[in-house]
Amino acid sequence: MSQTATQDQVIQRIQSNPKYQRLRSVRNRFAWVLTILMLIVYYGYVGLIAFDKELLAKPIGAGVTTWGMPIGLGVILFTVVVTGIYVYRANTEFDAITEQILKEAQQ
């Protein structure tokens, strides 16, 4: 049997595995949730810039720093946190399931 035929069989076993179907569903849903959250945060910030410049230009207390700085920093930190959440889940849950699926397909 050729290597291509063997690879095709392994691919077919992977695609027909219920764990693979579940993994795809869970991973895609999770990615869409994170994507939507990111879009809300980024477009919300851009919306603030476009429609409420006065809020972002207001100084915090009697200082020089405006509200735009901590809100912008919050957007950046949110991005780092969301990325960390995805990486953690991908490296633990998703990778473990992927390894199981590959082992089952090679048998």
Order of helices and strands: HHHH
Largest sheet: none
Unreliable sequence segments: none
Number of helices: 4
Q: Please identify the oligomeric state.
A: single chain
Distance between the termini: 16 Å
Mean pLDDT: 92
* Structure classification: mainly alpha
Number of strands: 0
If you compute it from the alpha carbons, what radius of gyration comes out, rounded to the nearest whole angstrom?
Answer: 22 Å
General form: rod-shaped
Classify the beta-strand content into a percent band. under 5%
Number of domains: 1
Layout: helices, strands, pairs:
Blueprint: H1 3-16, H2 18-51, H3 53-57, H4 68-106
Helix pairs in contact: 1-4, 2-4
Transmembrane segments: 30-51, 71-88
InterPro entries: DUF485, Inner_membrane_assoc
Pfam family, one: DUF485
Report on this structure:
With 107 residues, this protein is mainly α. It has helices at 3-16, 18-51, 53-57, 68-106. The chain is built from four helices and no strands.
In short:
The protein has helices at 3-16, 18-51, 53-57, 68-106. By secondary structure, it is mainly α.
Quickly list its features:
4 helices, mainly alpha, 107 residues, rod-shaped
